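Help needed: design a sequence for this.
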């Protein structure tokens, strides 16, 4: 980690804080200038890579957490680690009500191309590509007209009798097996990364679990790294009872004070700009330690600071600017997706969770709205499907976005 300095008094020579050199980078999936607080997850994946390299069986990995804690960023970092080790990699983002075959085919096509560069048997690579194409073509409906049929863009003739049964579970096991065998031949592995994994359709998630189970039993060098909302383990468990033993689960949470200070202080220090202790206190209070918020408030504070060092007054002045940007891009974009009935449900949750960031009983929402619980089920289920709330346990509901309740309470509707 880079060193940084924290100024507690003004330096003798004052310098403007150049906005062009602002190191902070708020954005969806945007890697922060300092990836703080994720050493445990990175080290655990390094162990996975090394064990697979030695032919040892290893479980696939699942990252869970609220939005804004950096799951997508961490997925990208794990992918980079695999690429540096010569692995074939592919990444997809699951979407509700979307078939998995097409994005999965594209991701594994990328992984196979990575492996083909090192493989000495072109015929074997083409054979695997043929199986992959056969798997992909099953995404087309049997009665689809020729002009409407999707072509996957894989430069190989489709194989027959392998991964083309139309049963996603059978086909995925066969496809994963062949791709893993190709990786084994070149002494490496394959990492398939799936973001928003909770949105994978039930049949597809069941097939993924079955394929991972088959691979773990054979010690094949292919691992799935999934990321999703906190209820993802429950989704996997409902699909296959053995999923709790199939994956290694890692809960990604907000940063503690030490790591949050590093996330702020290290990039500021690398730009040879100081920041006061009081400013660090204020930034942690504003952000709550959530990585996305750290970037948003850090960027606004840097831009607001007229002189070196950045002070708590700069943070205070910048806070409305950061909150306005979050209100539009982080909170507002999600809120706009909700129907009037769903917004009513969200606002009731916000009122019931005032002063805290945890969940609420669905029965309490019904009481608050003077409605029967059954009449609110459609709104709740739709909000879950849209990824705005999640149910960690039966009868409880919580926001997927930290500080969302505060945002709703201050909207003035």
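Sure. Designed sequence:
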């Amino acid at each position: 980690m880079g060193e940084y300095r924290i100024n507690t008094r003004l330096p003798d020579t004052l310098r403007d804080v150049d906005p062009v050199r602002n190191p902070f980078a708020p954005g969806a999936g945007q890697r922060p200038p300092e990836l703080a607080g994720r050493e445990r997850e990175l080290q655990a994946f390094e162990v996975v890579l090394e064990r697979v390299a030695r032919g040892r069986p290893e479980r696939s990995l699942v990252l869970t957490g609220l939005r804004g804690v950096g799951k997508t960023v961490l997925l990208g970092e794990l992918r980079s680690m695999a690429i540096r080790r010569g692995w074939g990699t592919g990444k997809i983002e699951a979407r509700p009500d979307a078939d998995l075959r097409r994005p999965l085919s594209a991701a594994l096509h990328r992984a196979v191309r990575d492996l083909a560069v090192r493989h000495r048997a072109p015929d074997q690579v083409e054979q695997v590509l043929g199986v992959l194409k056969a798997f992909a073509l099953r995404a087309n409906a049997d009665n689809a007209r020729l002009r409407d049929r999707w072509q996957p863009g894989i430069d190989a003739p489709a194989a027959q009798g392998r991964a083309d049964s139309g049963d996603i579970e059978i086909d995925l096991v066969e496809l994963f097996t062949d791709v893993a065998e190709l990786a084994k031949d070149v002494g490496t592995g394959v990492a398939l990364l799936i973001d928003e994994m909770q949105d994978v359709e039930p049949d597809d998630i069941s097939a993924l679990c079955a394929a991972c189970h088959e691979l773990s039993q054979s010690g094949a060098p292919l691992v799935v790294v999934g990321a999703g909302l906190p209820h993802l383990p429950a989704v996997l468990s409902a699909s296959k009872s053995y999923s709790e033993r199939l994956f290694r689960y890692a809960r990604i949470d907000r940063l503690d004070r030490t790591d949050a200070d590093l996330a702020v202080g290290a990039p500021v220090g690398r730009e040879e700009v100081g920041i006061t202790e009081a400013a660090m206190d204020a930034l942690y209070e504003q952000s709550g330690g959530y990585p996305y918020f750290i970037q948003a408030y850090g960027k606004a504070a840097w831009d607001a600071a007229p002189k070196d060092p950045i002070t708590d007054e700069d943070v205070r002045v910048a806070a409305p600017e950061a909150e306005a940007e979050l209100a539009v891009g982080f909170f507002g974009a999600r809120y706009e997706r909700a129907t009037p009935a769903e917004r009513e449900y969200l606002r009731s949750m916000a009122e019931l969770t005032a002063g805290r960031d945890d969940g609420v009983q669905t029965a309490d929402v019904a009481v608050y709205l003077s409605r029967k619980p059954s009449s609110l089920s459609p709104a709740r289920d739709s909000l879950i499907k849209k990824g705005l709330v999640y149910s960690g346990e039966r009868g409880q509901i919580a926001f997927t976005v930290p500080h969302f309740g505060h945002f709703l309470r201050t909207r003035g509707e």
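The two ends are 45 Å apart (CA to CA).
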